[in-house]
Design brief:
Layout (H helix, E strand, L loop, with lengths): L5 E5 L12 H13 L4 E4 L11 H15 L5 E4 L5 H10 L7 E5 L8 H12 L6 E5 L1 H4 L5 H10 L3 E6 L4 H10 L5 E4 L5 H7 L3 E4 L6 H12 L3 H19 L5 H9 L16 H12 L2
Parallel strand pairs: 1-2, 1-8, 2-3, 3-4, 4-5, 5-6, 6-7, 7-8
Helix pairs in contact: 1-2, 4-6, 6-7, 8-9, 9-10, 10-12, 11-12
Amino acid sequence: MLKFKGLGVAMVTPFTSKNEVDYPAISRLVEHLIVGNVSYIVLLGTTAESVTLSEAEKQELVNFVVKQNNKRVPLVVGMGGNNTTELVKALHRFDLSGADGILSVTPYYNKPTQKGLELHYKTIAAETELPIILYNVPGRTGVNMTAQTTLKLANEVKNIVAVKEASGDLNQQSYILRDRPDDFLVLSGDDGLILPQIAMGLDGVISVVGNAFPKEFSLLIKYVQGNNLSQAQAIHYKFTEIIDNLFVEGNPGGVKAALHILGIIDNNLRLPLAPVSDKTYGKLNELIRLL
């Protein structure tokens, strides 16, 4: 699945001051990402505040981006949940005709066993022909999908084609890399670890910081993959402090602040999330102005 290599961006959902989806801002952001040479765009992920969007809003947003994108880059749609039966129903209701794949997070809160995770994903995969990217982010979900479970799914399910590994566990990722099928992709989910992870052999990243700085992080990946480590290191160190401050008050508050500083979107989030503090906004503004 070459289309999911390189820089994927987990796109934010801009909101107006009236708490409505801001479609002019979405249009600006999509163009910003495509001009920035992203490999693909991910919609309705965690960074999109998808849990605060109604099903109708989700469908309208996807339809809008499909039209705006006009097949210029692949699109991935987040379709996850902790109720397998309801997720299957949603897969059948939702119009995914413009999607090139789906990103599906491990079930959260109810903490399934590894067998439960395996059966959850096998059930989903049987209900769609789209390529599926697994998403392991134990810091948010409360459960870690082990390398063994990921590899079992990679070997046994044809349309499970990749994993977004956001465990931060380089040892776990090493086992997946070592034992994966030849056509199975391993993608980073941690912006601060892109350089070492790509050097280990990961195939790309689904990034948050890439919303604001797609050109730079697309280049970082290309430099590492081309063994131009000094150039990759220069970008890595240039953005180290920015990345720390993007996440200091949670995601996507930080990256929305950065996008506001860059003049692309307004700095609005939906409750229970709130904009970052004036202190963090000021620090991000200072760091971005120094780039």
